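User: Good morning. I'm curious how iron/sulfur cluster would be positioned relative to this chain. Could you predict the structure with it bound?
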Amino acid sequence: MARNPRYDILFEPVKIGPVTARNRFYAVPHAAGMTNAMPRMRAAFRETKAEGGWGVVCTGYVSIHPSSDDAPLPFATLWDEDDVRSHALMTEAVHRHGALAGIELWHGGGSVMNRTTRTPPLSPSGTAWMATHVNFMGNQRPKMMDVDDIRELLAWQAEAARKARRAGFDIVYVYAGMGYLPYEFLLPEWNHRTDAYGGSVANRVRIVRELLEVTREAVAGQCAVALRISLEELRARPSERAESEAHEVVALLAEVPDLWDVKLDSSPTDCAPSRFAAEGSHEPIIDFVKKVTRKPVVGVGRFTSPDAMVGQIRRGVLDLIGAARPSIADPFLPRKIDEGREQDIRECIGCNICISSWHDSVPVRCTQNPTIGEEWRRGWHPERIAPAASSGSVLIVGAGPAGLECALALGRRGYDVSVAEAEEEIGGRLRFETRLPGLASWGRVLDWRRGQLERLSNVAIYRGNLLTASEILELGNTHVVIATGARWARLLYSPLEVPAGRLEGPHVFTPDDIAAGARPDAPVVIYDFDNYYMGSVLAEHLARSVTGVSYVTPAGHASAWAIMSNEQPQIHRALASAGVTLHTLSRVTAFADGELTLAHQFTNAVTRLPCRSLVIIGARFANDALHAELTREPAALAAAGISSVSRIGDALAPGAIVHAVYSGHRFARELDADPASLGHRRDAPLARLS
Ligand code: ADP
Ligand code: SF4
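Assistant: Good morning! Here's the predicted structure, ligand included:
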């Protein structure tokens, strides 16, 4: 199909200093969990984006010197020649597809702990970042930088820029954002200096200017020099010389870099979850930059709609459409627009599972795109899949995320697939969850798969079809895949931190009951030891219809795990504004006569709460009865011509939607595969021991 001429503007080349991007699609620097320890995985992951049509593909954060060590978080390094070779794998891979390669050179300053290198961290005035996020806490405080340290910093940046050039990069960054070293000079909270690097905005900006200058000199006209800068805080500060300090900073540096890469200041606002922020949420902060500089500007905003992208350019907000998450969810997004296939874009749902992989220090995962990070390791490509290795037919029982992903991947391989779904509507857990506050865009998991499946004539979906074991035997498909999901349990929680103690009763509910239409009477207590989104989202949901909702958790925060997905700060704000009362570090020990008994998680001190209805969001168990019944009699299976019965998704091991999609996809990839080819390849660092 031909490209819609409305989107032609997205495919115009953009000159960035001495280099030219072939189009306006810019895969911005983002952490992907693949450090220099996994150079081939990392190269293939970024190569796929280049193949998918991005004009520029960048690295994640790359440390310029051992005094910037973010371990155990997965940062990359450019400290020696092994590192140069390691990054060169990526630049070669990206260049093979006609894209430019950008490198985000980075110094973490007082935001890192140098846990591995054991060098004192550096900061403008010895001020530490003392985060509430446990991943970022530490007990090492930074050294105040003296003039020699500043001189060395400039030398490290210059040396790293020279290495970047040797590694084949086209765009070399100075990174003044997100609490890292140059950003620390920009804000007076960090910077109390009384020398030429502190005080006025012009002084605070000096280090950024000098870093840009030494980078330009080092790349000697071969590479573009980009400045990545966080503008949220600065924009909130009035200036005597401009509308805000952000305006003043951008004006002072306007033509110094070849490219402005503008962003917000903290991960929860910069990479805001869709539960709390819509597409294009950066615009009110960064919209002025293009008015102040003549250089190209790139910014992000979880853009998946080509119309929104065109709007950003036509309205003079951005020159290049930056993307981290949309390029993870669909590395082929630009190509699909180019080929007039925008309806095929696998749109990011804004769940931030990808971010959680960085916090977990593992290669990136994505709810929408199960192939991300697996390009080299498992040989998975987001758009290509091996043809069927046999003519067998497959019956999938259950049309939730796992069943649908499995059906799609098997259908694309050419298998004859039938999907039986008990309900009239497909989607499994998404049927209910996407109706909960803030989760509508998660419906893209279902919408995209439904749209793609409709085009496959070899996949049939039977709705309103609750299958029993005997019916499955009668159908006699070659392979049976059980994707029947999981159910929430009415279990409490023991001091050993395991679910224990069944609590039945007419006023005890689980999310399954609420999904089925139960309406708990007030006062309602949500008891959450699942720790992800369901507890807080149900509290918000119920608070819309009843007055008197409390939230109890043995953890220290509401939705404690959601700190990993950048959602936790906003979850607390949402619960507060919904009038939900919070009781943290509390275990439910009894529920009777309209009263709930709580024990403090650590001291066991007892408190009591009025409660008519208790909603327990804790353990989940697989719906595996069908699997157990079918596999009990191998002879009956053989007689029916069924050669395999398998489980996928929550029916195998309950988890987040990302795991269900991955499980369904993996099953489809591996069906009929040679067992010797299964598993994954191990990557290894390119390191010469001296
Ligand atoms: P997952 O996340 O693993 O995909 P879900 O719980 O989202 O799991 O989806 C499971 C789906 O399976 C639900 O839509 C449910 O209605 C369906 N299902 C469960 N048991 C049967 C059955 N015996 N026959 C057909 N569909 C079933
Ligand atoms: Fe988007 Fe979620 Fe995938 Fe991240 S994990 S790219 S937020 S769909």
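The mean pLDDT is 97. DSSP finds 25 helices and 30 strands in the chain.
Let me know if you'd like a different ligand tried.
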